[in-house]
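ok trying again, last paste got cut off:
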Amino acid sequence: MLSYWEKQSLLQYDYIIVGSGIVGLSAAISLKDRLPAARVLVLERDILPTGASTKNAGFACIGSLTELLSDFNNMPREEVLDLLQMRRNGLQLLRRRIGDEAMQYREDGSYELIGIEEEHALSQIDSVNNILRPLLGGEAFTLVNDKIDKFGFNKTYVKALISNNYEGELHTGKMIRCLIDIAISKGVEIKTGCTVKHFEDLHTGVRVTVPTAGGEEIAFMARRIAVCTNAFARQLLPELDLGPGRGQVLMTNVIPGLAFKGVFHMDEGYYYFRELDGRVLFGGGRNLDFEKETTTSFDLNPEIQQQLENRLHNIILPGHSVMITDRWTGIMAFGKTRQPLIRYHTHNIVLGVRMGGMGVAIGSAVGEQISAFLTE
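nice, full thing came through this time. structure:
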């Protein structure tokens, strides 16, 4: 039962953002940059951001060679380049907004391990470089086979090593912490533990209903709202063209004398690993069982976890004795196309979902677009 004071002063906002991940926080910050006096509320279903924003591997993804080749085979060239440009723009905005030091951002490039099945990609390095050079300003990919021995990888599997010269890494937790702090400093309100049950465009505004712990419902009102819940958006809008994709991750103990640093890809980006504080973070394997991994459940898939361990021991760290100290999952969102879904749902409801596993790279740019839609 709400009081008169609550009804008068605590339920009315100019804009409401549903979801406090990278996209939601970025949209809220961009809104306050455009309209400093606007009242902006972010509603988050859980105590911490739910999805992939705090559960990813911290890759500032531009894309590996085999991933881009797959994109070129399945999408028009213009769409691939537009998406690559969005990744670049999003990362540049994120870096300007937070600062490299605050989120431990390093743009030292990355590497892709090429096995027998991917060797065909080597003949296309020059053609892909030619396509990307006008956008990136230099050579995107170079062959660095001399580092295979240095990094200690299993040469029975790793037939070549490609350097991606325009990719970076960051500390995911510090990135989100900074975005939260920036949003709060600009006057954004963030309410956690607020699962949006439904919303309704009343034409004069939008009513957003949230159940309370006591079983009642609270109706917030806003001029416009943005849905930034990525893989969970279909719980509110079942008709959307998107499906969840669960990503499995594990992390090792500190490995004395670890031979490599940086970030690495395998198998069209379906596997990825990096050195992190002397440990190895390794994730992926969704392509082993697309059907089972199309879920919003955060449970571990034992078969995929075992495959990650096998690759870790046999390919990445042969001859090393390691322990697995952490395991977790993150939920991404994918659709029939790699393009994110950014559009009006109704006149007063805007969508910014379906990041395709590229949220770190494109999230800030998507948030900027959402703020422009909301303030039109």
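cool. The chain has a mean pLDDT of 95. The longest strand covers residues 217-227.
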